[in-house]
């Protein structure tokens, strides 16, 4: 194969002009306001975009397509219920720039792949369906009818339904998600990998087995009335900026905040609330009362050390530190857990955590007499090899304190993409339960497949091995989101057909199967007209609130159709007369979709009426009410015994964790500035401890190459710049997707099978120019 004619699966190996000024200590404020508006202006839609901003996340408005942080139940800010990245996401939706058939005729797939992800994403909204024939170099226009005919031909020619994979991104609405999984099951497969498999599958796995529900247990109001908030493995300033308003309110009401992370993030330290005059003009609010600079994968040791110190205090003040009544009434395994805890050494745990005993004691002192405690976490924990065990350890901590099932206390996985939680509620799951499948059979009358399907990692393996032949993606940027970039790219190229439902151009359209389709769809902010009537969809936020979302912008093209119609028309074209589902009915009436969801999924009673209420409604959450029902126990949450990991590095190895910049949401790159970390105009950087740099002989700004050798395979990410940063020794941090190429598809989280992107062993060497690299 001529490598010059194969579209690149990676960002180009080229440097810009790095400007590094060092980390900031305050997040938000006037710079955030200016950044939020700048993209609206750059896209040339000041009136269209600004008007939409004032409707986004408001009651009766449309839900932001960015993060899943909840909106306030009560009054919402008239200034705007959005963050900087939310505004940037809207700018890219509201733009009037269009990617048309003419654009594709002028740009080959290979040439487009030479652009960076940032450059690709700035081309504008996809305007019409496009088709790439086998062997072709350019996408060409195709009618919607012929696009669905093409999909049906490929799906119906498979030897087994299990040779098809149906991927889902978090942006998809409840209504579309339900129909999408229904189609896949009627077609005959549970191959439904989704973005949960890459972000919070670990949370669902750990929480389901301990508290009986794979979701968090707090509401936004709990943050306003609590004693201690622990933020671990998460950077709210970038990943969920609106969370900082809740932290600020809790802080003003007396809460203490403990921040635990390898990087000292501005969003964990200080905050200027751009929605308040005092926040804009004042000096800001110090958020974290205590910062614990834990090593990568040192979190388990840190948690156990704090529990040991709390147990010491409990021995001195029986019944004052641990909630013994709660433990007796609501848990099992307490004595065994305490015996397990006693088998550890505080000094050894502190060394494994990379945090001094003095700081650990300070953290324990803040928790000793408090029982209203909220623990929040992100992918800094979920993407560790032992992430499930670490989250079970967090559950141990809240069980000891009785900090669940009461006001101001509980567990809070901070989910990323908007409606990623709703997708799972709507049965987007490669492992549906027998009870769920029985209910679908009862309502619709067909026998759904019972065997488990592929998650993301297993889908990549199956495509690579030739066990899957059609890949359909409902949103997302699969190649840039997944690990082992070159392996995954080869897996996609082995498909007979790849299909992507998208709003914008991305790299996944350029790393394609033998044939490929791009199906353009409406965004959240677009008007969705069906039979002359504006429709609304619904979503579920990270705290279990289901609410309506109704776009207001005129779509940039008349050829865009909504995702619900895409699913229904694909189903009708593929299944034809053998289908027992009235797909045309659901395409024409969203209320009918919600009525059937109500029949199939618990908690959605009177769905159509309740979702029309301002602010929506909460789904039931037994654990939030203090009731724990797992497969093993009834109304009892088990303490679990979790091992301390043994992390061994060779003399020239480092642990690497990937992260996003502040100008980025998931795989979408909005700009080239990581403002709070002091990085501008560059993404190919590796953050290193200064002592490691001195020992290895690297200067600030040195060009290096990064290597990984998992599975006996050399993986290389070339041309990075070394930046000194206050990270723990032998730890490094890089941006994704640029270093996804280093993450083996086999480097996964135990039990949840997620990519362990926060735990990658690498070697760093001085950069070798491309020509020299070939000779070597």
Q: TL;DR?
A:
With 776 residues, this protein is an alpha/beta fold. The chain has a six-stranded mixed β-sheet with strand order 6-5-18-17-16-7, with helices on both faces.
Spell out the key features of this protein.
776 residues, alpha/beta, Rossmann fold, Dimethylsulfoxide Reductase, domain 2, Barwin-like endoglucanases, six-stranded mixed sheet, 32 helices
What would the CATH topology of the largest domain be?
Rossmann fold
- Biggest sheet layout: 6 strands, mixed
- Strands of the widest sheet, in order across it, are 6-5-18-17-16-7
CATH structural class of the largest domain: Alpha Beta
Give the total of domains.
3
Termini distance? 22 Å
Which percent range describes the beta-strand content? 15-25%
Tell how many strands the DSSP assignment holds.
34
Low-confidence stretches: 771-776
The pLDDT mean sits at 93
Question: How would you classify the helix and strand content by structural class?
Answer: alpha/beta
CATH-derived architecture of the largest domain? 3-Layer(aba) Sandwich
Gyration radius from CA atoms, angstroms: 25 Å
**Continuous helix count:** 32
Helix content: 25-40%
- Shape by Cα distribution: globular
Task: Describe the overall structure.
It is a single chain. With 776 residues, the protein is of the alpha/beta class. 35% of the residues lie in helices and 16% in strands. The C terminus is likely disordered. α1 runs parallel beside α3. The protein contains 32 helices and 34 strands. The chain has a six-stranded mixed β-sheet, with helices on both faces. The chain has a six-stranded mixed barrel with strand order 25-33-30-32-31-34. The protein has a five-stranded parallel β-sheet with strand order 12-9-8-14-15, sandwiched between helices.
């Amino acid at each position: 194969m001529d490598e010059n004619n194969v579209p690149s699966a990676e960002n180009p190996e080229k440097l810009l002009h790095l400007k590094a000024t060092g980390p900031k200590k305050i997040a938000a404020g006037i710079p955030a306001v200016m950044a939020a508006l700048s993209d609206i202006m750059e896209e040339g839609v000041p009136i269209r975009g600004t008007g939409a901003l004032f409707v986004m996340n408001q009651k009766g408005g449309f839900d932001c397509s960015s993060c899943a942080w909840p909106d306030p139940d009560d009054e919402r800010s008239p200034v705007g219920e959005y963050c900087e990245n939310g505004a940037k996401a809207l700018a890219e939706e509201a733009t009037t720039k269009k990617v048309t058939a003419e654009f594709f005729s002028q740009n080959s797939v290979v040439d487009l792949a030479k652009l960076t992800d940032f450059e690709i994403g700035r081309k504008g909204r996809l305007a019409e369906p496009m088709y790439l024939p086998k062997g072709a170099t350019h996408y060409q226009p195709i009618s919607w009818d012929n696009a669905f005919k093409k999909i049906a031909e490929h799906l119906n020619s498979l030897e087994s339904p299990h040779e098809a994979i149906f991927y889902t991104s978090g942006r998809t609405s409840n209504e579309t998600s339900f129909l999408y999984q229904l189609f896949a099951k009627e077609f005959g497969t549970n191959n439904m990998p989704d973005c949960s498999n890459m972000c919070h599958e670990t949370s669902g796995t750990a929480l389901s087995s301990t508290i009986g529900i794979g979701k968090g247990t707090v509401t936004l109001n709990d943050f306003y009335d609590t004693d201690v908030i622990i933020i671990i493995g998460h950077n709210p300033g970038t990943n969920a900026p609106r969370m900082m308003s809740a932290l600020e309110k809790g802080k003003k009401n007396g809460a203490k905040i403990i921040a635990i992370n390898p990087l000292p993030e501005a969003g964990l330290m200080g905050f200027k609330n751009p929605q308040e005059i005092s926040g804009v003009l004042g000096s800001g609010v110090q958020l974290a009362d205590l910062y614990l600079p834990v090593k990568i994968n040192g979190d388990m040791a840190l948690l156990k050390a704090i529990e040991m110190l709390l147990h010491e205090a409990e021995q001195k003040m029986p019944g004052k530190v641990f909630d013994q009544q709660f433990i007796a009434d609501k848990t099992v395994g307490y004595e065994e857990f305490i015996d397990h805890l006693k088998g550890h050494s505080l000094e050894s745990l502190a060394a494994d955590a990379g945090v001094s005993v003095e700081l650990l004691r300070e953290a324990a002192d803040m928790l000793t007499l408090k029982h209203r405690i909220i623990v929040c976490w992100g992918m800094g924990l979920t993407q560790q090899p032992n992430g499930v065990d670490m989250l079970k350890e967090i559950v141990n901590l809240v069980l000891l304190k009785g900090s669940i099932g009461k006001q101001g206390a509980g567990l809070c996985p901070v989910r990323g993409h908007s409606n990623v939680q709703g997708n799972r509620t709507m049965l987007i799951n490669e492992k549906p339960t027998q009870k769920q499948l029985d209910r679908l059979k009862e309502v619709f009358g067909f026998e759904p497949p019972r065997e488990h399907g592929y998650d993301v990692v297993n889908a990549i393996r199956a495509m690579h091995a030739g066990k899957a032949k059609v890949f359909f993606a409902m949103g997302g940027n699969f190649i840039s989101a997944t690990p082992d970039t070159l392996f995954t790219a080869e897996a996609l190229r082995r498909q007979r057909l790849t299909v992507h439902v998208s709003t914008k151009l991305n790299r996944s359209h350029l790393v394609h199967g033998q044939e490929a389709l791009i199906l353009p769809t409406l965004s959240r902010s677009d008007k969705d007209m069906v039979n002359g009537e504006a429709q609304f969809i619904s979503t579920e936020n990270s705290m279990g609130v289901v609410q309506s979302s109704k776009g207001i912008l005129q779509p940039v093209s008349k050829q865009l159709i909504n995702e619900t119609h895409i699913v229904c028309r694909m189903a009708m074209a593929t299944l034809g007369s053998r289908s027992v589902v009235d797909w045309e009915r659901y395409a024409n009436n969203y209320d009918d979709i919600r009525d059937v969801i109500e029949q199939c999924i618990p908690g959605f009673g009177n769905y159509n009426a309740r979702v029309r209420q301002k602010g929506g409604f909460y789904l039931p959450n037994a654990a939030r009410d203090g009731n724990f029902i797992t497969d093993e126990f009834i109304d009892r949450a088990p303490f679990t015994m979790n091992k301390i990991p043994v992390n061994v590095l060779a003399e020239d190895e480092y642990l690497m964790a990937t992260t996003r910049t502040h100008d980025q949401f998931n795989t979408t790159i909005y700009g080239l500035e990581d403002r709070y970390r002091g990085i501008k105009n560059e993404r190919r950087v590796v953050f290193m401890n200064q002592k490691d740099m001195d020992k290895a002989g690297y200067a600030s700004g040195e060009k290096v190459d990064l290597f990984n050798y998992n599975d006996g395979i050399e993986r290389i990410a070339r041309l990075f710049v070394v930046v000194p940063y206050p990270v723990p020794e032998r730890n490094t941090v890089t941006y994704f997707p640029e270093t996804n190429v280093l993450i083996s598809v086999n480097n996964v989280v135990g039990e949840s099978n997620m990519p362990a992107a926060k735990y990658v062993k690498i070697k760093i060497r001085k950069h070798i120019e491309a020509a020299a690299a070939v000779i070597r």
